[in-house]
Write a structure and sequence with these properties.
The protein is an alpha+beta fold. The protein is built from 9 helices and 17 strands. A hairpin with a 2-residue loop joins strand 6 and strand 7. The relative contact order is 0.14. Bound molecules: flavin-adenine dinucleotide. Flavin-adenine dinucleotide (FAD) binds next to strand 9 and strand 13.
């Protein structure tokens, strides 16, 4: 489950009522949150200094949880190998460029009036020829497509994860909320959208946040986590709700990027000549990978409609640029 800790104002939102009326979530009382070890009403001075919200209750979503991306990737890799697909790891594709369909062997090709396509991929492992190229490099799509003159409509922002280990984290982990759960739910704090994910194997939790102001849009090759960001920005808030976490330590940390579609925070999937682009996962690319893969497959095969995993269908162009028809994704955490 996902446990959204909330103050009364948020608990009263229409979206909360809708989730409950659709049978997708339930309200958890403040007393149950206290039993897990949370301070539901932070001290007055901390509340004022850190601009904290109270925890008056929570919304527990049912059909949500945690997954292991490595295992999903390993599964698909083994299935695809059985189907004859080859993988080339540690192979960097250099900048992509359109080439003339018919070469004139004249300096400066291709010219405006020549038919162009993306045919040869220059890589650190030699040149590959492709009828169709699918660019699914998410945050790095910009870097790859800039030289080809194609706008990928996304911007990268660093996101960090801090792994917190210690007896209090281990104790919190054992608090399940429903019979089918084996660990505590993935938890969203009432302030700043800070999230806490259980790591069942190690009795640790991961803490992260999607911060905005003064967090630049940039594409770093090797983004580094900032321990001082945990110490100065995250820990004071966590400690106000979970003072026992003062005895926990940061046992590891890492950083990556969210590749933001800054308008509606949903993927872009579109075709330019013989190039298909799937990018802009906006922090939900694992969860949405199945759906996006299906849209890519439809674009490749020229199908106007895409059938999703649950049998429902969407127009393939809905996630494109020209005929875009999506609502804004509000669940970016
Ligand atoms: C801290 C953090 C937490 C997250 N949590 C969640 C979550 O809980 N749920 C969720 O759904 N999503 C989450 N995400 C987002 C998720 O990781 C991405 O949306 C997802 O990985 C996107 O998948 P992708 O295959 O499109 O791109 P990526 O996973 O980014 O893969 C792109 C690949 O392209 C490769 N590449 C780039 N440039 C080149 C080049 N020139 N040549 C060759 N290869 C290249 C890269 O090396 C990379 O392997 C999180 C992201 C971060 C950073």
């Amino acid at each position: 489950g996902y446990l959204f800790l909330m103050d009364n104002k948020r608990l009263d939102q229409d979206v909360v009522k809708t989730f409950i009326s659709e049978g997708r979530a339930e309200i958890v009382q403040e007393s149950s949150i206290s039993e897990m070890g949370y301070i539901t009403k932070p001290k007055k001075d901390e509340k004022e200094l850190l601009n904290l919200s109270d925890i008056d209750g929570a919304l527990l979503g049912y059909n949500c949880g945690i997954i292991e991306p490595d295992r999903i990737c390993a599964y698909y890799e083994s299935e695809l190998r059985k189907m004859g697909v080859s993988f080339f790891y540690n192979t960097e594709v250099k900048n992509l460029r359109f080439e003339p369909q018919t070469r004139l062997n004249y300096p400066g090709e291709p010219f405006l009036w020549q038919k162009m396509e993306m045919r040869n991929l220059e890589t650190s492992n030699g040149t590959f020829r492709a009828e169709t190229t699918i660019v699914c490099a998410d945050m790095w799509t910009n870097v790859l497509l800039n030289s080809a003159g194609i706008d990928s409509h996304v911007r990268g922002k660093k996101r960090q994860v801090f792994r917190i280990t210690g007896e209090p984290a281990s104790r919190l982990m054992s608090h399940t909320m429903r019979p089918e759960q084996t660990v505590m739910p993935f938890t969203i704090f009432p302030s700043y959208g800070i999230v806490m994910r259980p790591e069942p194997g190690s009795s640790s939790v991961w803490i992260s946040v999607a911060d905005d102001y003064n967090r630049p849009f940039e594409e770093e090759d090797d983004p580094k986590p900032e321990p001082e960001f945990y110490e100065n920005s995250l820990f004071p808030v966590i400690r106000s709700y979970l003072p026992q976490f003062s005895s926990c330590r940061v046992s590891s940390m890492w950083a990556g990027h969210y590749s933001y579609n800054t308008i509606d925070r949903t993927h872009y999937v579109f075709k330019e000549g013989n190039l298909i682009v799937a990018t802009g996962s906006s922090g939900s690319g694992i969860m949405k990978a199945d759906a996006i893969g299906r849209v890519v497959s439809s674009l490749y095969s020229g199908r106007k409609k895409t059938t999703l995993y649950d049998g429902s269908s969407i127009q393939t162009g809905d996630l494109g640029v020209e005929e875009r028809h999506v609502s804004t994704e509000h669940m970016v955490i």
